[in-house]
Amino acid sequence: MDPTVISMLAFLGVSGLVGIAAFVLRDSGNNRNVERLDQLVGRGGPAAASSSQSDMLLKQALDSVNTKSLLQRLIPKSFDVGLYFEQADVKMEPSKLFGVALCLAGAGFFLIGGVVNFYVAPVGALVFGVMPLIWVWFKRASRLKKFANQMPDAMELMARALRAGHSLNSGMHVVAEELPPPISKEFARVYDEQNMGISVEEALDNMSRRIPNLDVRFFVTSVAIQRQTGGDLGEILDRIGYIIRERIKIMGLIKGLTAEGRLSGIVLIALPIGLFLMLLQMKPDYVEQLWKDPMGVQMSIGAIILMLIGAYSIKKIVDIKV
């Protein structure tokens, strides 16, 4: 390809990346000015830190009555984008992140098309475009996993607080004060919701909706039953914490035993892709038959489908539920 064309495409790609950075960081200056004004009027001290959770609850209540954006109208109602981003603890709005993904897809299209080949430019656009979404997915999975690992400590801490004479509300406040995020943030939100007049059952049910975890459902159900029938809640929480801790140990053992299978799956999926890219660079005429010849297109589609089926099968084999 002509070096001039490659230079133009590279320029467009870099310009797209610069535009993404400007799009993401465009509000940072205004936020700093607002923080300075808050400090000048006395709203940046400890009182602001203690009321930040309440401010977040009020903001979400106001956002829930606002008009839905175009992105929210396009996505099916069964998938709550805002809740997904909240579970990942992503401060960026979904529409802004999807805009970044579109800009990255355009930059990837021109970069891969200029450097490699325009036939594989859509693949580059797809790879670059899904990067922000994969980042949100990994961030959500990491946060939920960390929350699950903190559950035994939270249950035991609440049980000790109850035995010391504290109420359930005070016990959750102790968890919010003593443990690190993300569990402290969630229990602090439950505590603030109760202070705003929401019942304990409803506040805990909201937390179980935000945290799709079976152990959280056990905890919420146990509290609801105990408040209706009575009983020693401290002992119940101790038992829940013990069960969760033992389950985490078993899951770690299973993860070690299935490491070979998971690594084999990664190699089997990555090997055809790596071989395709290597042949595309070394002998493009040989690989171009996969999308120029009708039989090659059918073979490519069949290979992709079989790879997806294989990846799903390997995942189901090594994904053992405890």
UniProtKB/TrEMBL annotation:
GO terms for cellular component: plasma membrane. It is a multi-pass membrane protein. The chain crosses the membrane at residues 6-25, 97-113, 119-138, 263-283, 295-314. The keyword Iron-sulfur does not apply. It comes from the Bacteria. InterPro entries: T2SS_GspF_dom, T2SS_GspF_sf. Its main location: membrane. It is found in: Cell membrane. Residues 155-280 form the Type II secretion system protein GspF domain. Keywords: Cell membrane, Membrane, Transmembrane, Transmembrane helix. Pfam families: T2SSF. PANTHER family: INTEGRAL MEMBRANE PROTEIN-RELATED, PILUS ASSEMBLY PROTEIN. This is Type II secretion system F family protein.
